[in-house]
Each structure stands twice: as C-alpha cells, then as structure tokens.
Amino acid sequence: MSSTGYDNEHPVVDHGIASSLILLKYTSIWYWLSKHAAEKYSLLYKELNAHFHYYQHNLEKYVISACKAVAYHNMPGIMFNLEEEPLLYLAVLCDELQIWDRFHSGTELIDNWKTIKHCMAENIEAELIISETKVPMLHLMASQPHYDKLLGNIKKRVAQWDRYVQLTKID
Q: Whole-model pTM?
C-alpha cells in the first residue's frame, strides 16, 4: 500500500504490487493443475508440459523472478544492478525511460488539465547507436526539463545506466 494514497486521502494498492500478485496467483493455478495432473492424470500432465513447461523448477526460476520484477519496479529509493537482478534491472530501466511517452498524472495536474502538455514524446528524440566494439545504446535527446527529469530518475534507480543509455540535452 502506498502510505498516503495517490490522492493523499485514502491508501491505495501500488500497481506493481497488485500486478505481481495477480501474475503469481494466475500462474500458480497452472502449476497446481500440473502437479495435480502429475499425481492423477499422467496423459494430461504430459500434454500440459509438452507445450507449456509447468515444471516446478520453472516456477522458481522464471515465474517468481518475473513477479518480483513487476512488484519491485515501482519502489522508490532502491538502486538496481544488472548483475544481481537482470530482469528487475531492465524493468526499472524501461520504466524510468518510458516517462517520455506517457500522459502526466497526479492530483496537481487535474485542475489545469487543458493547460499542460500531456505527452513529452514531442520534445524527445530517440535513436539506437550500434557500434561494432560496444553494446548498442539508446540515445535520447531531450529538452531541459525532460532531460533533468529523466536524468534525475534514472540516476536514483539504475546502477551503470549509462552503459546502455545516452542522454543529451537539446535546446
């Protein structure tokens, strides 16, 4: 739960936590069915796992990792590292970079909805830099306020982000 809620009156469930729990609940049903089939219906078990691979080690290795990435991606004040949590690192990196192509939200923007620019994408250019000697990089060119927002957010949450993303300020 967020401590004060998005509207500062009522606590609300964070979308990352809620999505993670829904993903875990949904997939755990399929793993339960697979386990149940293994015990009583061997043909069903073989059919389920021939295409979908609901083996216990996959739940622990992939599904739990994905649920964790979804849950943690929105948590502030935590720095993520590619070597320690690759899926989570990429989720947070993408989450921080995608602010440039989404509508602004928040109570403070509702009153002046018609006076604000709703999407930053018009003020940001993107290109992929491919080099034979380096890892491909995403190059984002942004105006001052967008540059500051992108840089501030990404520096707080993603270690060594500049190995994969280049930010440039444009006027």
A: 0.66
